[in-house]
Write a structure and sequence with these properties.
528 residues; Transferase(Phosphotransferase), domain 1; three-stranded antiparallel beta sheet
Length: 528
């Protein structure tokens, strides 16, 4: 039997049999499956059973086990995360290889993600009209502490790792039932030491929580994570999806150019100082945002300490109130194929708790309240035992799936151009139908996602046109973005997008993808 066939058989066994052994780990159940990896709850055979012997194994999917690029990325993630040692970042123990399968070993967290927490909080009878903004600010401050550490951490030789998380979202922040805040999923993080380089036309991260400069291909630095944290703060304090829209194109337009509705226009009694913090984090120009995670952390702590009647809520007690039945379920008592409901909650698709979109608004008047003095002691972090980890799949699906590889996609007459690619005789009809249908529906990112999913099974000829699709799609969506910016009157930014495209690609490639090609000449001629 070939090694590839053995790998497939091993993975099938992992997913379907109980108490299977993977190296020194005994598989209890499969927790989730993403586009590129799957998660298993496991315990070590050489350790006694109990709450400290529960781990999550993140296994690369079998059809990717021969893809050098994905193996390199998987190794990058493992190498990066094993160097992170911080109470607000979930512990990763390392990577292993057994039965033909690569897997990362992580702690498991008995708790909820921040999306589930904030949704439950805002809908609970005791809190829906009495939101503990000071507590939510302190949770945000803990997330900022994790980001500050990641931004400045060095390796054993003192080399700055230069980590940018790039996927900070409510789904990637966990709250344990013991009250700890944990940042997870560095699978799409950027670091100075990574071997793998992102391919042309591929965005890494969750689209609706991405900084504008990341989206349009400009330099990403620690301030990009702070924009994402600003989105998190906005959403957990208003219970609204800030950039939640019906299509990827609408999300992109909202992120780059639509005015952001101040929280006080949604919630009249929203604290003015907290609003100022959130809106500053959401400045589209990085130079105007907070410049470091430490700076926004201090602002959040100042706000919480300055509240006239701080609620001093005990977070573990609040978790018990919000999730009574989920907290009682113990992972160490699980064996076989039963999925724990609390795991299902924090492993679920983001859209399961789909927030109501924030309303659009054309203006914002900054109240400029006085900054309160820095105080501490309002909230004490609890550190007891192992704080297990959940990580989502190596890549997460966009829209209906949790954030998979996000790629820039084509528009307009690109549909006709792509049709030619599907005429190769070796092309599989089902692949053609899926991708073409998604393109016709303007589901650009899902279509690109499908090209990555089909690529491992594609013939050499098919892989050539798949690469062409991704390249042309990358140019196409950036052209669409530039044209939208132009139509909204943001000529300077539109010119910047086009100029970058023309430096990287031929003018023929760029101009051929424009639905309204006249905009190109107008834009390029109006701005020196």
């Amino acid at each position: 039997m070939s090694r590839k066939a053995t790998n497939l058989m091993n993975h099938s066994t992992l997913a379907n049999q109980q108490q299977l052994q993977l190296g020194k780990y005994r598989i209890r159940t499969r927790l989730a499956k993403g586009g590129m990896a799957e998660l298993f709850l496991a315990s070590r055979s050489d350790l006694p059973e109990g709450p400290n012997n529960i781990f999550v194994l993140k296994c690369i999917l079998p059809h990717l086990s021969k893809e050098e690029e994905f193996i390199t990325m998987f190794l990058d993630e493992a190498q990066l995360t094993t160097q992170l040692h911080h109470p607000n970042i979930v512990k990763v123990h390392g990577i292993d290889y057994a039965n033909g399968i690569y897997f990362i070993i992580m702690d498991y967290i008995h708790g909820q993600n921040l999306r589930s927490f904030s949704t439950r909080l805002h809908t609970h009878p005791s809190y829906n009209n009495n939101v503990p903004y000071d507590l939510l600010a302190l949770i945000g401050a803990e997330a900022a502490k994790a980001l500050d550490y990641a931004h400045h951490v060095t390796d054993e030789e003192g080399q700055h790792l230069g980590i940018i998380h790039r996927d900070t979202s409510p789904s990637n922040l966990l709250i344990s039932y013991k009250g700890e805040i944990k940042l997870i999923d560095f699978g799409v993080a950027k670091a100075n030491t990574q071997v793998h380089k992102t391919r042309v036309g591929v965005l890494k991260g969750r689209l609706s929580h991405m900084a504008p400069e990341h989206l349009i291909g400009q330099k990403v630095d620690q301030r990009s994570d702070l924009f994402s944290l600003g989105i998190v703060l906005y959403e957990i304090t208003t219970n609204r999806g800030l950039f939640q829209r019906a299509t990827e194109g609408e999300i992109i337009t909202a992120l780059v150019s639509e005015p952001i509705t101040p929280p006080s226009q949604i919630i009249p009694n929203y604290p003015p100082r907290l609003e100022q913090i959130v809106m500053k984090a959401l400045e589209r120009e990085p130079e105007v945002r907070y410049q470091s995670a430490k700076e926004i952390r201090k602002a959040l702590l100042d706000f919480a300490a300055s509240q006239p009647n701080p609620q001093r809520i005990d977070l573990p007690k609040l978790m018990s109130t919000l999730f009574p039945s989920e907290q009682r379920q113990r992972p160490e008592q699980t064996s076989g194929a039963v999925e724990l409901s609390d795991l299902s909650i924090f492993l679920q698709n983001t859209d399961t708790h789909r927030l109501k979109p924030a309303p659009t608004h054309s203006s914002y008047n900054d109240p400029h309240p006085k900054t309160p003095s820095f105080q501490t002691g309002l909230y004490q972090q609890r550190q007891t035992g192992l704080y297990p980890q959940h990580q989502t799949g190596l890549y997460q699906q966009s829209s209906s799936k949790k954030g998979l590889w996000l790629a820039l996609a084509a528009v307009g007459i690109l549909v006709l151009g792509l049709a030619g690619f599907f005429l190769y005789k070796n092309n599989t009809p089902s692949h053609k139908q899926i991708i073409l249908q998604q393109i016709q529906k303007k589901q650009w990112l899902q279509a690109i996602e499908q090209t990555h999913i089909f690529a491992p099974k594609a013939s050499p000829t098919e892989k050539v046109w798949l690469r062409k699709i991704r390249l042309r799609a990358s140019i196409g969506l950036q052209v669409e973005l530039a044209e939208k910016l132009y139509k909204k009157g943001n000529i300077k930014k539109s010119k910047a997008v086009f100029s970058k495209l023309l430096k990287k690609y031929s003018s023929k490639q760029v101009f051929s993808l424009s639905i309204r090609a006249k905009y190109l000449n107008e834009i390029l001629s109006q701005v020196p």
